[in-house]
Amino acid sequence: MIDIQGLDVVFGHGKNVFHAVRDVSLRVEKGQSFGLVGESGSGKTTVLRALAGILERVARVSGAMTVADETLLRHRSQSFRRRVQMVFQDPFGSLHPRHTVDTILSEPARVHKLDRIEERVVHSLEEVGLDASFRFRYPHQISGGQRQRVSVARALITGPEIILLDEPTSALDVSVQAEVLNLLMRLKREHGLTYILVSHNLAVVAHMCETLSVMQNGAVVETMSVQQLREHSSTMPYTQQLLTASLGYDRTAIDAFEEFG
Amino acid sequence: MTDSTLLSVEDLHVTYNTPTGLVRAVSGVSFELGREKLGIVGESGSGKSQTGRAILGLTATGGTVSARRLEFKSTDLLNASERTMRQIRGGGISMIMQDPKYSLNPVLTVGYQIEEALLVHNRTSKRVARERTYEMLRAVKIREPKRVYKAYPHEVSGGMGQRIMIAMMMIPEPDIIIADEPTSALDVTVQLQVLAVLDDMISERGMGLIFISHDLNLIASFCDRILIMYDGRVVEECTAAELDRAQHPYTRGLVNCLPRLDGGQDELSVLKRDPSWLTTPGATR
User: Is B3 helix (H, G, I), strand (E, B) or coil?
Assistant: First the structure.
């Protein structure tokens, strides 16, 4: 479904060059969920943005990307933009503060010249568990969890096959996180969606995905199945340290932490 | 109140008078703190930060604090003069905030700010203060204290910034540290390294720590004792090791809705909020 080969992303020029992604390759089968894990600055979000085609104006992107047999060009086709949607981390920053939920949801439908827009808006709100009374509210009038549901509804409205999830629950309380993760799992089952999930939280990735890549300094350190992650059968010291750290505070383990540069 | 008790809070209330009515941010919180690591955990809006701020008299304008008792050692914090409060803040109780980027002054060097914290509370010479600052920077595991001393806050990383905050809060040698989400903005390995620094200093100096966080796993592994807050009240108190055996449905709900690394969950259990949690008195032992 998704095939990325030798992706490189470079920001800036001359002295200020920053090589954010180095030779990243990954494959995601249809209906799979693929996790990208790493600490801040590891380049995981940049991979997602490069795939979505929203980096071309600010960075040099090279490498071959194919999505559902369509080779991606510098300018993405209209059909790509309909089939691939994105949900961002911050539900406060990703919804227009002066647009109602109705405007937010109908805009992508209008852009893609879809018919029966009103029907679609109501339907996609239903899919994310919000009733039609939310249509005429503004983002500041709803809670963080509801806002993230609206972001998901906006992604669903074009009838996508792939959804790119960039830390979709890291700004939410754990009880709300559970609701949003359950919602994403249900939508994936019902619509046969393919996900790429970017997260710093190993437990969230282990819950949602079948396969994951661990990234560090722009490169993929290791790609493995979630089963391998659970069995602690990772061979790379960086992954092992990340795994130890995500198990909680352990005074003696911390002294053994290394700097990976 | 036993000898080892540093702080006692009894029936603490914080209310805000807003145009839409009275908001009860904290309603009836009681606890005692000794030389231990006490965790306060809760979701956003549960009143955990408001509790920490009220202890230091840092409640925002428009808020009213009342309590049957709010005592630090033998000082009544509710009726203390502003002058006494200034001595207690930093000198007796100090607070580490979430984001060093906002809590450090961007136009002053790191060293100047740490030194100032010492000079406000102790009468020492500039030279001694500088030596103590270097020492403190070394104690929080900063390898080049002389370079960092001269650095400005924007020149240091998030993890180092938080270590600098810890150095600044520790240098006047307070008895209590209140840490409000001190490491939430950091990567998980850096977070643990910073906590290890804090942990070592607290046990070496025999201080009390109030650790405020939304991260249940972290609190359970880091603290000795936990208070679980919901809607301005403490619904349950337990030792960190006993969190798995917590009784209150809210605590159990919080524990169960976390995705686990070892898997085995098809669907995450979702917290069902019961209105009775708002009215039944919280568990206190």
Answer: coil
